[in-house]
Structure prediction request, 331 residues.
Amino acid sequence: MTTTVAKPVEPAEPTEPEEVSGRSPGSLMWRRFKRDRSGVVSACVVLFFFGVALFAPVIAWLYGKNPYTRYGHEREGLLNEFEYPIKPNGGIDGEFWFGLEPGQGRDVFTQLLFGIRTSLGIAVAVTLLAVVTAILIGIAAGYLGGKADYFLNRLIDLLMAFPNQLFFVAFMPIVAALFVDPSEETPTYIRVVSVVLVLWFLGWMTLARILRGVTLGLREREFVEAAKVSGASRWRIITRELLPNLVTPILVQATIMLPNFVTTAAALSFLGVGIMEPTPDWGRMFARGAEVYQGDLTYMFFPAGAMVLFIVAFNLLGDSVRDAFDPKGQR
Prediction:
């Protein structure tokens, strides 16, 4: 009978412990966001639109056209006797990529480029103003409390009671008349300023109310009480303790506000109280498309398709940003 002798087991070589490095909330958010494919694709689409808006003059220069020249009137053979493009599909060819505008004979591609530039410029300006106003009033109401909170809340309630769409339509001519005599033609920059002011006036209250509610909960937290005990000023507590904890609702709400401002500004132009001729604008292209769709349906396709793509992409981006900041939330 044979016996087997077990070989001694050699001790395993000690392995160096993996280095564990702490991650900041921002890096964790970015890591979660990169895993969301719909968010990444939506971000690329949104960046594409902003790139088009920023470099519209360069793209138009390379393309060799501008949004103001009436090519259909300057050259024969482009428009028929009813001033519709002669070539099929709205006059699309190798020279005019998106065709020609019925009636005016302008290039649709450059009209869309500069229309996106106008609409996004207005929406970004309104969003920045609304976010800054909401931060100032919302945090002040939540942190100060007492009479300040009461009066600021009543102001928010009063402004939220206004019917937004009717207010926008009714007050646009009034705001424009504050800068220019009604008998004179209103310059384009005055119309842009008027649209920005009107949209900003009733565009900040929702975010302000959200920030007020979050601030009411944060001001009783231990880190705020510790800052008060240490003798920190109110400004330091707000900027160093409260504001960093309000980044999430601010970013999420901003991604909701901007596309809403884009559609509202377009609606004002569509109704004839926003940006007017000859300035290219998304809403004005919709208004023109509604007039000529029976004779040239192709003209409406490009501004409508671009706006739907932008709004959907921005909404998906907002959902992805919210989920990246708050992974426990349910979409």
